[in-house]
Write a structure and sequence with these properties.
Radius of gyration: 14 Å
Number of strands: 0
Oligomer: single chain
Largest sheet: none
Order of helices and strands: HHH
Mean pLDDT: 91
Low-confidence stretches: none
Shape: elongated
């Protein structure tokens, strides 16, 4: 029996992609905010958006 799955590509904004890459390399929210010169709350909001789009849970 063959099982076929349809996987749609996940569309992240350029900023979401940037934050995602920094997260994947082990950077903390604070470090990401320093690197990108944005507030920690902004990084947290972007992370929530990434988690929602990728259907990820903590």
């Amino acid at each position: 029996m063959e099982i076929l799955m349809s996987i749609e590509p996940i569309k992240l904004s350029s900023r979401e992609t940037e934050v995602c890459n920094l997260l994947l390399t082990g950077n903390s929210t604070t470090k990401i905010s320093e690197l990108l010169k944005i507030k920690c709350n902004t990084v947290s909001t972007i992370k929530k958006s990434i988690f929602f789009k990728t259907k990820t849970t903590n």
